[in-house]
Structure formats: C-alpha cells, structure tokens
Amino acid sequence: MGTHLPSTEFDGTAVDDQREADAEAVMGEPPAQMVQLLGPDGTLAADPVYSEYANRLTPEDLRGLYADMASIRRFDIEATALQRQGQLALWVPLTGQEAAQIGSGRASQPQDYIFPTYREHGVALTRNVDLAELLRQFRGVSNGGWNPKDTNFHLYTLVLAAQTLHAVGYAMGIQRDQKSAAQAAKEPDAAVIAYFGDGASSEGDVHESMVFASSYNAPVVFFCQNNHWAISVPTNVQTRVPLSNRAKGYGFPGIRVDGNDVIAVHAVTEWALEHARQGKGPVLIEAFTYRVGAHTTADDPTKYRHSAEEDAWRAKDPLLRLEKYLRAEDLADDAFFAKVKADGDDLAAYVRRTTHDLETPDIRSAFANTYAEAHPLVAEELAWFEEYSSGFAGEEELDAENAGPAAKAGH
Amino acid sequence: MTTMTIAKAINEGLRATLAGNPKSLLMGEDIGPLGGVYRVTDGLIGEFGPDRVVDTPLAESGIIGTAIGLALRGYSPVCEIQFDGFVFPGFNQITTQLAKMHARSNGNLTVPVVVRIPYGGGIGSVEHHSESPEALFAHTAGLRIITPSNPHDAYWMIQQAVECADPVIIFEPKRRYWLKGEVDVESPGPSADPFKAHVLREGTDATIVAYGPLVPVALAAANAAEEDGRSVEVIDLRSISPLDFDTVTASVQKTGRLIVAHEAPTFGGIGGEIAARVSERAFHSLEAPVIRVGGFHMPYPVAKVEEDYLPDIDRILEALDRALSY
Lengths: 411, 326
What we know:
Chain A is of the alpha/beta class. Chain A contains 20 helices and 7 strands. In chain A, the strands form 2 sheets. Chain A has a 5-stranded parallel beta sheet with strand order 1-2-3-7-6, with helices on both faces. A two-stranded antiparallel sheet of chain A has the order 4-5. In chain A, strand 6, helix 14 and strand 7 form a beta-alpha-beta unit. In chain A, helix 3 runs antiparallel to helix 16 and helix 3 runs parallel beside helix 17. Chain A is globular and about 75 Å long. The N terminus and C terminus of chain A are likely disordered. By secondary structure, chain B is α/β, with parallel strands linked by helices. Chain B has a 7-stranded mixed beta sheet with strand order 3-2-4-5-7-6-12, sandwiched between helices. A 5-stranded mixed beta sheet of chain B has the order 9-11-10-13-14, sandwiched between helices. In chain B, helix 3 packs parallel to helix 4 and helix 9 packs across helix 10. Classes of the chains: A alpha/beta, B alpha/beta. Chains A and B meet through helix 9, helix 11 and helix 18 of A and helix 3, helix 4 and helix 5 of B.
C-alpha cells in the first residue's frame, strides 16, 4: 500500500499503487487525505473541521442512522428476492453503499432538492419516499412512481449524468428565488444535491454541470459515490486522479470522504450543504465506497473481480462499525438491535405485499401524459386505439368462459 | 401595425415575454452584450439584467440541461442555440430528458423550456451553419416544433411558445431574419393558435405545402404558375409537430395534387410524413402522387454549390409540372 493512500483503500493491489503513482505524477502532489471519523474498528477519530458537525449528532440521531441503514439493507435483500421471483424486471442493489446514502440524505433538509441517479434507494428513504412506490419503476408499471414535488426527491435518471445539469439549473432557480425579496422572506435557504457515480463522472454532462455551477456559484453539492465499479469497469479506467481532486480544476472544494463511515458522510455533507446555502458555491464530495453486490440483478461480478476484494470491503462494512461504536459507547443495547431487525422484517413484508398489488397502468395514461396540453396526433391515435380495442369487446368474457371448463378439466 | 424584420419581431416578442412573465429568462451563447450572433436578443440584457438574459458557458448540453432544472424550479427558460448544426451536443438533453419529463413523471412535472434554433441554408456559410434538422426532433414525442415564416408569426410564436406548458422548439429561418413585414403587436389575429397551418393563397389545381424559409419561394412559384394559367394553393405549415393535417387534407381534397417543399433532405423527412398521411386520408382525392421537393441525401454541401442543393422556384415549378402531368 502506498504512502499517501487513505486507510480504507483495499490493500496491496497493484492497481491502487499504480493509481496513486499516476495521481502524483499528474497532480504534482499527493491526493487529498480522506475524511474518516468512524473507523472500521468502531472508534471515533477527531477532525479539525468535521468533528464539530459530527458532534451535532445526538445518540438518538446515531441510532436513527443505524436503523435507516439496516432498513435499506433489508429492503435491498427483499427487492433482490422479488426480482428473483419474477415480481420485478430488474433490481439495482445498493448493499455496501448504505452509509454514503443515508449519511448524505439525512444531512439534507426538507427544502433541499435531490437529483438521484438510480441506485439511491437509501437517499429515497431519508426523503420519505414510499419504498413500495420506488419499486414501480423496476416492476415496469411506471417510469417514476412518486411525485417529486411531495418529497423534493426527483425521479431516477437512467441516462447517466443528465441529472447533474438539472441539479445545477434547479440551483440557479433557487438563486433567483432568493434574490426576489418576497420569496426569500418566506423560504429558508435551500441547496441541491446531485448524485452520480464514478462511471458517470466520465460523462460530458458532469463536466458541463461543474462549469455552469462554478461560473454561477450555484448552491449545489455534487455527491459522487465512487463504488469502484461501473458495471465491470474499474474506477482507474475513468480517472487517473482521485475524483475529488477534479473540483480543483473547476475552482470549488473537493472532499474525499470514507463512504462507509456514516458519521463522516453526514458531517461532510452537512458542511457542504451549509456552504452552498450560504451562497459560497458548489462542493464536490467523493464518497469512497464499494458496491458489494452486483451492478444489477442481470450482472455477474465473478466475471470481472475477485471475491477477495469483496471480502476486504465487507470488513469495512458501514453497519458493523456503527454497531461496534453504539455498543462500545452504551448508546444502544440488544433490545435496540432486535427492534431494528423486527422493523426491517416489517418493512420487507410491507414491500412484498404492496409490490404484488402494484397495478398495471392503462396505456391510456401514456396517451394522456405525453403532452401537458392537448395534442391532435395523440388524440387521433387514441381514438384509433379505442376503436380498434372495441373490436375485441366481449372477447375477454369469451376467453374466461373458454378457460373455465378447460381449467376444470385439468383437475 | 408596425413594419419590422423577423429578427426584430423575435426581439420584440422576447421583450414582451420578459416584461410580462417574471419567471421567463433567456439563456445562450453570446446573447448578452453582443445580442446574439444574429442580434436577436439585442438590447435585452440592458433592460432585464444578467439574471434574465444569461450568457452561458459554451456548452449546448449545459444550456438545455440547466434550462430543464430551471423549469423544474418554476422558471420558463428560452434557450438560444447559436446555429442548427450545433444543437447536437444538446440533442441528448432534448430527446431523452426534456421531451420525456412530463410523461415519465406521470404528468406531475412540466418543463416549459423553449429552444430557439436558427436553421436552414442560403447564407453562404461554413459547414454546420446551414442545416435543417427538424425531422430528427419531430420524431420525438413530447416536443412541439414550430417555425415562423414572417414577422407577425415570429412576434407571436415566441410568446406563445413560452406560454405553452410543453417544451417547444422554434426553428427560425435564418436567411429570412431580415425579411420585413407587418406586425400587429396588439393582437395575434389569425395567428392565435401557433399549431395551425395557414392557407396563404387559394387555388384549385394543386397545393404547395412549405414552411419557414421556403414559404416565400412557394408563394413566388405559385405566382409564376398563375402566369401559365395554373391556380395553385399555398399552405404555410407553421407547426411541424403537431402537424395540421386537417388543413392540408382539406386543401388536397379540393386540388387533388400536393407538392411538399422543405430544405431538409427528403428521405425520412417531414414531406414523407405528409405524403403518407395524405395518402391515407385523401387517397381518392389524389390525381397524382404527392411530390417532395427538398435537399439531397448528403451532408449540407459547401456554400459555393448550395444553390444547387436548395429548392428554388424552378424546382417547385418542375414538381408542379410533374404533378399536373398525371
């Protein structure tokens, strides 16, 4: 392991040593140190800037962060199972990234607006999105499933990094609202978080969004979850420097944080959001974490990475280290952890039950929602569809009648 | 009535929008102190300030993408794309994000973004400055596409586009920016609905459908044909999506012959769509095949030969002769 690399880099791989050497060669200086407060052994360290933020977390808050991480991990297991059972077309697991998502999401305030990619189920939980609603997209009954206006949690965006520009535009809107005296008086200062990953960091829209954000000093936090794998391609194909260092080129702060340390993630995100809300401009946070599972349920990580690497990261598990801390500090007991587990099972049962009941929409709603205002071509095609469909009227009943005796005969 | 050029009419339309709609703002490259490369936004930054007339970084995806974010926050951005051929870095944002946001949010979100694109050739410019990419956008559901051919429509269409809850692309016929005409700034009159075609000239022997820069060419061809004793109807389509098939069909049912003219290549173009729809709707009225007059299947050619590429009066008259020979 190289001299400058932070302690949670996975150990002793040639790729990491090379990556560090590359970074130094390009930057002419070592990569920024990673912010870590709660280590894998469950001990809390001090930081000159972020301890102040970490100290704001009450025991109740810390237990809440643990409960949230446990809930979303249980949800992830349930959703994966639902996909295996054919109830979902696809699932995008988040296991391993709970601290990055819960820590950052819990640092946001209701007036902030969040633009996720498509793996931010943990952030969705912190924004009170109904997790059963979240499954609509993966069951194929909606491309959204929740109204972003209710939670300030935008729809998932599957075209990678497109949402980073929406986030900056939204932040530019907040700036204008704050300048309007009437609006500023009635609303608290707000900021925007744009989530993306190490893979998406290569997309041109990330570059353009950071240029715009910097030029207009927009109140936006770029939250990059570096989970080390863009499907099968490792981060060192996307970048030769730590992603957080890229902020330097745009002229705003870049922070690398241990993405498996929920306390540090919360502290750093809270600092960044305050920075943005106070009009000091954008911040890039690189949460250094790991996608322990597959990219999606259609992926096979054994084709491109070694299980030893996964094991190394499991040793840095975000839940285990917080549990160690809570127990060591007498902030939570067996009864608490038992209740968290029971609550997780209740959530899983709710999600399972609700998923089965998610209704398939009528294609007429797709006609209705293509445009906000009346559109003659849509009206014409809908009229044709109605006429065509009416030709099959009665067939359903006929099918049912035909199926009846056959079904009986089968018994 | 006031006489002004198309460029000035858009400028005045934008001024009226900015004055009347506090949530509207303009975004684009060089639209501030310079007033845009065609001076369409001339003077507006002085009147409305840099928060409402925003000189952006040189990045088309960034312009459209941040406009979407502003719209989600309740603003009505009007984006200027400097030239037709430069819209493609923003094509992803327009087609995958802007066009679909309302649908994929189950109707919960609207993104009333307007994209202004100067388009078409005939200005003797370098490559990527003379293209007509409207069909690429017309194929994408969720977008509305309009194109003015005269100052009165230009003045009203830009304002109507901003008021529309759907995303609207306005293709502005750049070689007609200096075309003068009467503008009634008090009332849109017959231009109240930007998505309706206009019959500019009535006739009985054939119909010419055109839009944007070719409307004056179609009118001149019809006038020339009249000297040969042919009565030709001319329709200014005005809107490409939605397309006013009712007006086109009614005309064909009267004349029996249809020529569609546009600068864009004919293959996969708007003319083909009109021909197909008319053959479905007015098959028994047709006395001849629908004939398309348009660009060739090649990248827009170099300036010195663009006259051979662009449909002109003679190309339309030749098509008319063919239609009338059936």
